[in-house]
Amino acid sequence: MARAATEDSTQGAMTLAEHFTELRRRLVRSAVALIVCTIAVWNQFSDIFAVIRQPYDSVQVAGSTAILALTGVTSGFSIQLRVSLAAGFVLSSPIWIYQLWRFISPGLKRHERKWAYVFTAVAVPLFSCGVLLAYYVMPRMLGILFEFTPTDVQNVTSVESYLSFFLHLTLFFGLGFLLPLILVTLSFAGILSGERLKSAWRWLILGSFVFGAVATPNGDPLAMTFVALPMIAMSFCAVGIALFNDRRRLRAAELN
Description:
Blueprint: H1 2-12, H2 16-41, H3 45-61, E1 67-69, H4 75-91, H5 93-104, H6 115-146, E2 156-158, H7 159-188, H8 194-199, H9 201-215, H10 221-255
Parallel strand pairs: 1-2
């Protein structure tokens, strides 16, 4: 038992140089996974881009006068590269999320590192749910934005501009859904206590409704609440887990 405690303290005491070495190792592995997944989906560009442009096309069917167009000689290659990288990023998410946890785990005790697999198993579906929610609300957002187009004017949208809008929105939602899990991770790493999170519950609720307002720009309070409530529920679950972790650490310290 004393030996295990010694090993835990030795492994937790990393120098700054060792932290940078560990960070580089995790980044390299994540980058390799991203490159491999990008190459794997390269030939599937047409199918992937059809999924990406579907929200735009649904607005067209609804009566919009917007036109999606390429505006440069190299735009075709640039678009395929960006789409493949984005798809590779999503496809490799189990790997880079796992690497993120492993970078944090040296600050944890040995018996706490088993949560790496649990973290990855929960983070990937959460990230995916955020992306899917963004995809669901995107046609509504596009429809609202296109309503500002002046009468008798066609909105010629470059593919690059639409792709940037699509990627930024999906990434925003995906990372937003990861926020509660990040709070739990910071708690397990000893950086953020459950009591501190509990005292900030008002900010968690406010942030969730701000997230809902951004996700539903049409101002519909019911839709905003529909988006905000899952965020509030996940945030409060994160606070509960962090409080439980505080008590567990306190009991472990008393026993030692």
